[in-house]
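User: quick one
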Amino acid sequence: DAMVIQNPRYQVTQFGKPVTLSCSQTLNHNVMYWYQQKSSQAPKLLFHYYDKDFNNEADTPDNFQSRRPNTSFCFLDIRSPGLGDAAMYLCATSRDLGQNNEQFFGPGTRLTVL
Amino acid sequence: GEDVEQSLFLSVREGDSSVINCTYTDSSSTYLYWYKQEPGAGLQLLTYIFSNMDMKQDQRLTVLLNKKDKHLSLRIADTQTGDSAIYFCAERSGGYNKLIFGAGTRLAVHP
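Assistant: Done. Structure below.
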């Protein structure tokens, strides 16, 4: 089945130690998104890629970066994780950016910062 | 600014109807969505409504939109235990498919 895959499902890192979360998709979609969802809060968009074009949300901290080496993969890099970065990180894809392009979500990676 | 609000918790008896409510602020939103999140899983799109519609029905799901009051609701008929999950309301904002989510309503279905 075509899908959005996130690895690992659970990630533990130490305060200040860089960590990378991975997302892959078999849908061949042009757009990939990263959302941060803190406990009992709304998922919040961090950034998205349209093909190779990177689009950062205005309030996304500089500590968060992303790479998309090809259509299928997108990575979220957290350079120096703080305790406040503990959250579920959701990857999503959509075919395009136009009207009502459904976003398909992966199962998420839960990040713990010790 | 953009904001979506939902009540955090709803408990219903199996077989009853559930109504989950949501308010949003962006009057230019063209599409409004309901997503479902089961434990350990990602967000699954349940249904959506275009802003020029008042109602949309899809099997057990009925979406009502009051654009004047910026109020959206999701009614689940004959609620089952398998409907227990967190339900997120979202509005589409901006020209690039950005979704603004509410904090989610946890639906608990009891016998």
